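Please produce the structure of this protein holding zinc ion.
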Amino acid sequence: MYFDIEKGDVRMIRALKLIGDYKQEISDENLLTQIVSNPNSNGKYNTVLIIVFKEEDGEIVFYDIEVEEFIEEKLEKYAYKYGSSRGGDLTPTCKITDLSKTFNKKFQYSIRDACENLEGENKNEKIILKIYDILQDEDNKEEIYNKLRKVNYDNNAILTIALKKEDELKYVGDFEEFTQSLMEKYEEKFYYKSSYCKAEQESIGEDNLCYVCSEKLDKTYGYVGTFAFYTLDKKGFTPGGFKRGEAWRNYPVCPECAKILDLGKDYLEKELSATFCGLNYFIVPKVIFNTHGEDREELFEMLKELEEHKKFSLQEDARKTLTAAQDDIFYVMSEFDNYVNFNLMFYEEQNSAFRILLYVEDVLPSYLQRIFAIKEDIEREGLFKELKGKDGIFDLDFKFNLISDFFYVNQRNRPDFTKQFLEIINNILTRRKISYQVLIDRFVAHMQEKFRNNKSIWFDNLKALMILKFLKKLDLLTATGEEELGVSSTIEEYREQIEEFLEQHSDILDSNVKRMVFLEGVLAQELINIQKRDRDGVAPFRPRLNGLKLNEKIVRRLYPEIINELEDYDKNLHKQLEKMIADYILESDFNQISNNELSFYFVTGMNQVHKFKFNNNEEGD
Ligand SMILES: [Zn+2]
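Below is the modeled complex.
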């Protein structure tokens, strides 16, 4: 009846525990920091009004109103936690909406609720109960309210109480009596679900082993859903089947571990997460699953180092990123020595359910360095430099976003190829081959659609070329159908230039048939450009390209058609290119190439026409 926690989840739970331990060790922050909220999260509550009490001759009395500027360092002191809209907050610290309402209602409810379980057993309890009494008294209330009213401040303010001891203030957060109930409230989520039916609301196990620390404990909780990957609300948990209240049997977590996992999650989200082409990911330094001894120290060392690297690296130039995101941390990872491996977890959070999309294991820093080196190499190629864009001249940088653009990751109203994209990313990061054919098919489908809609495709084509070159250099492409290259013929000067270009890009143009169809694309675009120039932007030849859905027959048909049309313009350059194509057609093996590849290299030729120095230098469409 019980389900298994998935492999990725188990790793995640362990990693979270370690990271949580780390977080607890490096800071004096206690759990309270995690629990309290920031009343000034919108930056508009910059004033704190404190109703100060003090001890006088053994009696607690109202002393005065003190005003201070809100500072984040005092979050634990204020110990603010929103309660409900009609009732009070969870501690006597409230955001002021309307002074009269807040002071007379919300604030009063808050302190009343906080006093509910106090019996005056110790000194603190007595103080708090006395403060409550003072605030019940109408005369006191009026005096305090009038004083509060006179305080001037900009925007909004926060209302709280404190006790003056000598010259120091003891705040709400300094009273365990107040924070204790916060802690209890916080812990409740680990074992109590108000939305479940009565019989299943509570899940507490007794005397069993904690799933996380493996210790036998008298109390374990069943609803610890740190990341909601373990969710009991999934389908299949129908009444009569698995009793959700018995969840502690399946994934029991002791109170201490439950809190540590939360700490780990908090750290992970703040320090080790980023976005990647519209997807969220965490980097999880590979943890050796022994949670004791040296490995643990090593992990802690590494997290510290990571924090430091991150501080510096992120300020460096944007070229050192593999994604368009500001928070890209790949370069940071690449700066480590190889003793550290990284695991990457791509995930999705939807309706509070957490789904791991991809778990990439063992990414080595040295390999990331290689990726960055190749990225730089490719970016230096003339093909990608000094491009004419809408906002002027620019260079194309290699980023994984170039790939995701073809796979419509998180794009509306488009087919979603996120899964294929993630597979490609997984293969790149773990050095596995990527199907050249899958890429070509996607590139071409994307460009055909834009071509049909009369949209420019030169930039898409350039991005596709960059991706192919990048992967080829990383040696990650499956066979691209290389064959013997070269055509025998007399060499003339212009032809030599063309040959040189083909040679420069022999990583991509690696067969006769690809070169042939590439050159035919060059010539076709030349013809289209001429027609457009002569006929007010209309190119009658364009529809002959069959929406860029090419095959051998069309490629063979296009050749004489282009030549016929170009005859009127009789240029020597055309003649040489025509001759070259004819030579290549003879040497081309069409069995070696798919229709999408034919289309792809044809488009590539169309988009590189300006490299062939006809008398037209436009980019084409
Ligand atoms: Zn435990």
